[in-house]
Amino acid sequence: MSADRTALTEKVNAWLAPRAAEMEALLKELVNIDSNSFDKAGTDAVGEHIAKLLTSEGITVTRIANDTYGDVFRAEVSGHGQNQHVLMLGHRDTVFAKGTVEKRGYSRQGDMAFGPGVADMKGGLVANIFALRAIKAVGGLPFPVVALFTSDEEIGSPTGQPEIEAAARGARAVFNSEPGRVTGNVVTGRKGGASFHITIKGRAAHSGANHKDGASAIEALARKIVRLHALTNYSTGVTTNVGVIKGGNTHNTVAPWAEAELDLRFMTLAERPGLIAEIEKIVKTEDVPGTSGEIVTKSLFLPLEEKHSKSLFELYQKEAAAIGFSVDGEFTGGCADSGFTAALGVPTLCGLGPVGGKAHTDDEFCRLETLLPRTQALAATICALG
Ligand SMILES: [Zn+2]
Fold first, then answer.
1. Rounded Cα gap, residues 31 and 106, in angstroms
2. How much is the average pLDDT of 110-131?
3. Any idea what the CATH number is for the domain that residue 320 is in?
4. Cα of 289 to ligand 1 centre, how many Å?
5. What is the tens place of the pLDDT at every residue in 53-79?
6. How far is the CA of 217 from the centre of ligand 1 (A)?
7. Could you tell me which residues are beta bridge partners of residue 253?
8. 237-260 tens-digit pLDDT
9. How many whole angstroms from 92 Cα to the centroid of ligand 1?
């Protein structure tokens, strides 16, 4: 590390050091805006709040319109000469319904903050915003630093994915501020995942009078579920789960229809085509004569393979130690936007937000004392990438 860079890191961290209370105040403001993924007005309101704050500091924010979900907001602090940028990712949407804030808005007990999305990932948004402000306050880095604020991660980033991929192409590194693990660790690996809707068509018949004229969609689905679940292999990390089934009309009618929701998780990009081909084959096989099956992919997340996070993690660990905390890398079966950028081959590290837990529940919490040091470590790691 050059002497220059050390001085820059110190300046950035010194700017952040007295701002813990300000960070918490922003966390409270962001948590207290309902922003379910399907609530465009809500996710846009969070985006506008962030944009107002950043533009008042002289940071350029552009808004990418979206008809269905919240707009994407892209903030950038330009660099001095080097083109290859650094990208920070954060999603503004939560899984909580509109009206949750009214029932249980932001609250605090000692070091623990509570409220919808307080960890996943409004805490991470605060980290990204303050890291970017700190970098702007010291006059920027040799390279541009971009922060993308998306709004549909909790439903698989159907419209966020292309924006994330476009923003990540050619980047020197991507940092995703999803919540830090309860252990205090960051995330160095994630499974890829996909969800599917399966529809089976059969033929109705009176199950007493004309049983053999029928073709049971429920029986066909049941046979497929057994074969789909048999794809699970804990030693390779592949799992399948049919989590929802529906079908049939009455107990005395051979079922003319059945439906299922399937979740698939996998470890590497290379496994994906083979697994999907196998799933399609199972669904389309005519298990019961007279039935047919269709499958539609509902969402797809790509894996964060550890080979793409290794170098960034080592750098982050060093910067964290200099700030005064020790941290390890952790693998999770949960998916996130970081998989999209890692799948492009761009070095990617995840789980850089403040430490939190019980995400997607009423007991979700964020450990406030981790907000400042983890933001400092994030900003210092970015500075070290010159
Ligand atoms: Zn999240």
1. 6
2. 98
3. 3.40.630.10
4. 44
5. 999 999 999 999 999 999 999 999 999
6. 37
7. 206
8. 999 999 999 999 999 999 999 999
9. 9
For residues 18 and 62, state if they share a domain: yes
For 95, the 3-state DSSP assignment is coil
Element (H, E) at 24: helix 20-31
Structural domain span for residue 132: 3-191+303-383
Q: How far does residue 178's CA lie from ligand 1's centre (Å)?
A: 5
How much distance in Å is there from the Cα of 336 to the middle of ligand 1? Answer: 7
386 pLDDT band, cuts 50/70/90, is confident
> How many Å apart are CA 340 and CA 302, to the nearest integer?
6
Q: Are residues 13 and 96 in the same domain?
A: yes
Distance (Å) from CA 354 to ligand 1 centroid? 12
User: Distance, CA 8 to ligand 1 centroid (Å)?
Assistant: 30
**Same domain (yes/no): 90, 133:** yes
Q: How far is the CA of 91 from the centre of ligand 1 (A)?
A: 7
Q: Is 238 helix (H, G, I), strand (E, B) or coil?
A: strand
Give the E-state strand segments of the chain in sequence order: 60-64, 72-77, 86-91, 107-109, 112-114, 145-150, 173-176, 186-190, 192-201, 239-247, 257-266, 292-301, 329-332, 348-350, 356-357, 365-367
